[in-house]
Amino acid sequence: MKRFIYNSGRKVFVYNGEFKEEDHPRGEDGKFGGGGGSKGKKDEQQTKDKNEIKPQEQLPKPQVKEKMGNRFMSSMLQDIDGFGPIDNDDEYKKQAMKDIRRQLKSKGIEYIDAYHVTDMKTKNEGIEGSSIDATGGYSGRIREKSVYMFFDPSDIKKGYDGITGAQNEENTIMHIKIPLNKLEDLRWDGLYNLTFDTYSAVRVLGDVPPEWIDGMYKYKHPNQNSRPRRFIYKANP
Question: How confident is the model over 50-76, as a mean pLDDT?
Fold first, then answer.
């Protein structure tokens, strides 16, 4: 009869006519039958893989721009700007968003790529939205709680000075996949785009759940070491 003699971490010394070392009958999840240890290792590795910060060169390109072109991207952003503030039950808005989804799906696009620049190093909790005014501060009319991002990553370099959530020398770009059924919750960030000569800065109402975050990538602005202190942009002097 097999008898358990001594537990040593994940191993156990047993006596079955002779002493030998075997895997512990309880896995890391506390259940009998073995395999728990490997399952725990697998879950740990999956969490590590999800939070891996990859080189900036591996940042995925925006599908909309690559497959539909700049003209469609600009047109879509104009519709988001025009219809965004209108109530979601508005028939014209519903039809406009429906048309955008139809055109995207015709090219095999099932989500919109977006890029959020931050000092965060993990995506386990998603991205919590901020309630700020149009200048990135708190003195003006406070907007709805939102997460700010770009549809075109080439805008990051031009608009970097206005990204108040990226204060470290090296930042993280979070690649976000926005479901097409969330088009109605997007708002074009007009003041930011006009201030920094960008065109694709947007915000999505509420928070970004972790399942929308596809990956994380390193980012360091080309002139980071010589740049002056970052400022919050102003609507008017």
Answer: 93
